[in-house]
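TA notes. Do not distribute before section.
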Amino acid sequence: MSSVAVIRAQVERRLPGALTVYERQTPEVFPSGIASIDSEIGGIPKGALTQVCAPVGNTSGRTTLLLSLLAQVTGKDQYCAVVDANDCFDPESAAAGGVCLSRLLWVRCSDRGMKSVEQAFKAADILIQNGGFGVIALDLGSVDEKLIRKIPLTTWFRFTRVMEALPTALVILLTHSAAQSCAALTLNMGASVEWSGSESASHARLISSVQFELAIGRTSSKKPAQSARTNFTVRPQWA
């Protein structure tokens, strides 16, 4: 018997299963409802934190992705919640996107600045502790990046640990990747806009389509795929 086999046998005798390789189970997911995204990542993982990142003020597809996800989950008779830090959520757009508003809890934060961020996290914490939601979305997408950077890493870590025991997806909209390794999935989003009409008359031009680009920064179900990209197009209702 080789020396490696002898050492292995001794270790296994003292610590049964210590050298056994266990395959990581693929987490259960909610489909986002966007085929090109679901084919790449499978869906939004349950029992985990997902961060969707895009710069403030830029069309990115972040809201489109969120509304599509909420439409999928509320359409299956599950309840969802949106914690809105800067009062940006539009119920009419959500309803037009297929979200069942009777199964959606909308939490609007009344303060501004860091107080609004603190309110949002307290509200999300209460919702997570009480349970009963398929998706809890925390919208910090319009919060200044310097305020997000004040959130300690321990906060993200605590949310991650609590989520592991729940059949709920926690989705956080951000300007940048703040949860770091605490996130099971990180999506970085951007977009380019195509216009119709005469370039000489800007007031008469309409958006004909929006091409969204999504870069997968981190995924717990696969190896990190920093360069993985996918695209999807959305056309306005008048096009």
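Switch to the second chain here.
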Amino acid sequence: MKTLAAILLLSCFAFGQDETAVVAAEAACGPRDVKFEVKADATQHPTPMPGNGKALIYVVQEDPITSRLGVDGKWVGASKGQTYFFVPIDPGEHHLCAIGQIGAVTRVSLHGLKAEAGMTYYFVPHIVGAPVYIIESKFDLSLEDPDQGKALVARAKFATSHPK
């Protein structure tokens, strides 16, 4: 009986979370209720270089999910399936947030970036591993090597997105 009571007590701690800590950790995201409409545009394939003292972030989506990217608390774009988009940013410290919609499950991945003027950064939001159940899926925002990033962009369609 004591063992059962101990298991029940410990399981309560496992399911608890500090909502304030979650909100603070996800400060790089935009408002959670914002959803995006994403369209692949096969008629254009822009690949600009950073300009005017800026850095450039490319986001390349490979998995068949929808993900959105926030930078410093503001949503900057979304991608779906084999698409990419880009966003210029100022040099300096930035906090990135990717949210992936995997079926009915939403996952968050955070990444810090110290951007340098004239540099290009390639990020890939993706499902990690091959879970048996969607609920077990992990989601990550990975910084790619520039050569690999260019290859990924070359194979993807340009995505245009706007909030619904």
